[in-house]
Structures are given as C-alpha cells and as structure tokens.
Fold N-acetyltransferase.
Amino acid sequence: MFEIRPETPADEYEVETLYDLCFAPGRTALSSYRLREGVDRVANLCLLLRDQGGFLQAAIRYWPVRVGGHPALLLGPIAVHPTAQGEGLGGLLMRDSLARARDMGWARVLLVGDAPYYSRFGFTRLEGVEMPPPTNPDRVLGLELQDGAWAGIAGQVTREAEAENTPALAEDAEPPHIDATCHETRRPRDRQDDDQTAAGAASDQRPERS
C-alpha cells in the first residue's frame, strides 16, 4: 500500500535529497530551471508517494508557465527512488497528478522528455513551442487536459510573472476548489509504467539532451 499526498514545506529537504540522488548535481543549471526560479510551485499538484513505513519513494512537481502568453503547466521534475524503480510508481504519480490538474481546471501540460515513454500518458510532440535553449525541440511534449487546448498555441515558453497556485487554463474559467487530499493505492501491477532509468520520467533533467 502506498500513500499519495501533496508536498508540504516540511517535506522540502527530503524531496530535494531525492532529486539530488536521482539526477546530476548540476540539475538546477539546466534550461528548464530558468522557468522555475522565483516562481511558486502549483502546490496541490506537487505530490509525494510514500510506502507503508512512511519512506519517500517518489515525488513530482509542477510549475506555472506561459506559452506564447497563454498559461500552461510545466511538469517536472519527477523522481523515483533507485530502490523502488521498476514498480510503476512514476506512472502512479503521473496519472494521479494529471487527474488533479484536470479537476482544478488546467487545460494544457508541457514537459521535456522522451516521446516513447510519455506517449503512454497521452503526450505528443508540440510544434512551434520553444523552450529556452539548448532544449531539443523533438523533446518538447504536450498533453491536452481539455479538448483543443493546444490548438493554435505556439511561441516561447516563459516564466509565469505572477505565480498563482490554481489558474485555469480555459482562460476565462475559474477552477473548482481542491482540498489537499491524501490517496492510498496498492502496489501497481502494470509494469508498462516502469521507470526507464534512475532519472525515472524526469528526463528533462539530463543536460546532454535538454
């Protein structure tokens, strides 16, 4: 049995330690981090997965960004502890967090990663969406949480100047209130969601590819 719940300030050190363990020490120097500096995370979507003993097994974070002036979610980093890889925990966090994002009124999600891995969650390559260099455009992927959300959206990805925790991506809609709830789930059985490497699904952390 696993528990999925939102990250709290008390979890900060433990989560950062997990990211340091899974990714290169220079991860914060990568281009995607320029979009996160000085911007508040989307708190209700930054989730932790702990085992029955309370040990942190996986974590995922989201940031608000702008794409050609339109709001979007930037997914990542997501990490799975090396001792828990191959158990589908990355897939659990992906699906849980994306369902919450949809319920909150978000319409579109952006990430930088390997298309073959992320396609199982519905992500496809985004044409005309420009991440800060030197990001490989083939690795810029998007997912629609609302029909047609990426239609006609292009341009540079920029920081959210005034971060908000629950902006609605149907531009004029107000998202419903979402409580910071905990979910319990059993060990996943579908190994199609197994994480590929120690970096798990957070392949935007690999400097040689970003």
